[in-house]
Design brief:
Length: 322
């Protein structure tokens, strides 16, 4: 099979298309023909070495496809089933081994590309607004990178729960996308001071919560945008990791709360995975949630996909199509 391999940490140029031996499913595993693989910032962290991975490795963890073989001790899945997953290492390939406990059925009415695009970011958006900081009617959230894949999903879910969204974007095109998703106000971070704009838009109160997947370049503005006892939810580091923090800064910012959640800790049981994925696919099927696929690339174009993602040249979800 064809796959993307990383033999040394570095920039997008280390992503090499190669021939690899097709895997065989072991106990509790599914062998899946990949229809689409999600491209996410965590893939760039692993490729560059920010997140340590044993070399060499096939990147990617998210996707959707058709089961072509079933290993021993698997129940609930059969050859021919359409499944999606958010946690199967090696998904930048034509075939991948998916732990059966991590695979969810793709319902009729949801195509494979949409399913692949919905998993990692959709499950993350779900836990952020339902578990980490459950948005309530009338509350206001600041969403960074509001036209990105995560930003568009967060905006829609916040609005569905009765919240208000202040979104940050860099261009007019991205502003249009964020407003179409439901953002109430937009801050062009390339043209204005984010915290000052938030202060003006909230009449000096600040926002109840900041959902920040950007990290280093937005962290200080995020803290400064919160109301007293508000919460900063730092769930990513697209601009780089946040430097070590003196806890006294949280006091100075208004006795605010800081959390750094991850998806794995919000999918601790099969029941929790099925709840979150079930909600997502139900909303997608009913039209209540729109998944925007902003760009697709062939497997051999993985380098370009990473370059465009890191260069902020993408909107919505980025997919590789083996």
């Amino acid at each position: 099979m064809r796959a993307i391999r990383v033999t040394a940490n570095g920039g997008p140029e280390v992503l090499e298309e190669t021939e690899a031996k097709a895997p065989e499913p072991g106990s509790g595993q599914l062998l899946v023909r990949v229809a689409a693989a999600g491209v996410n910032f965590i893939d760039t962290y692993q490729r560059s070495g920010i997140y340590s991975m044993q070399l060499p490795f096939i990147p990617g963890s998210e996707g959707a496809g058709e089961v072509i073989a079933v290993g021993p001790d698997v129940t609930g899945h059969s050859v021919g089933d359409r499944v999606a997953w958010a946690s199967a290492p090696g998904s930048y390939a034509e075939q991948v081994l998916v732990p059966a406990g991590q695979a969810v059925a793709v319902p009729d009415g949801v195509d494979q590309r949409t399913a692949a695009a919905a998993m990692l970011q959709g499950l993350t958006a779900h836990y952020l607004v339902t578990s980490t900081y459950p948005i309530r009617t009338g509350e206001t959230a600041l969403v960074h990178a509001a036209a990105g894949g995560m930003g568009l999903l967060l905006t829609q879910l916040i609005k569905s729960r009765g919240g208000n969204v202040l979104g940050t974007v860099s261009t007019g095109e991205k502003e249009k996308l964020a407003r179409q998703a439901g953002a109430d106000e937009i801050i062009r971070y390339t043209e204005a001071d984010i915290a000052a704009e938030v202060d003006d838009l909230t009449d000096g109160r600040g926002v109840d919560v900041v959902y920040d997947g950007v990290g280093k370049s937005t962290f200080d503005a995020s803290l400064a945008s919160l109301r007293p006892r508000g919460m900063l939810v730092l769930f990513g580091a697209a601009s780089g990791p946040v430097p070590p923090l003196d806890p006294q800064k949280l006091n100075s910012a208004g006795s605010v709360f800081l959390t750094r959640p991850s998806l794995g800790h919000h999918l601790l049981t099969r029941k929790e995975l099925e709840w979150r994925a079930g909600d997502l696919f139900s909303w997608i099927g009913s039209g209540a949630l729109t998944i925007r696929i902003g760009a697709t690339y062939s497997l051999g174009e993985a380098r370009s996909a990473h370059e465009d993602l890191e260069g902020r040249r993408t909107t919505g979800k980025v997919l590789l199509i083996p």
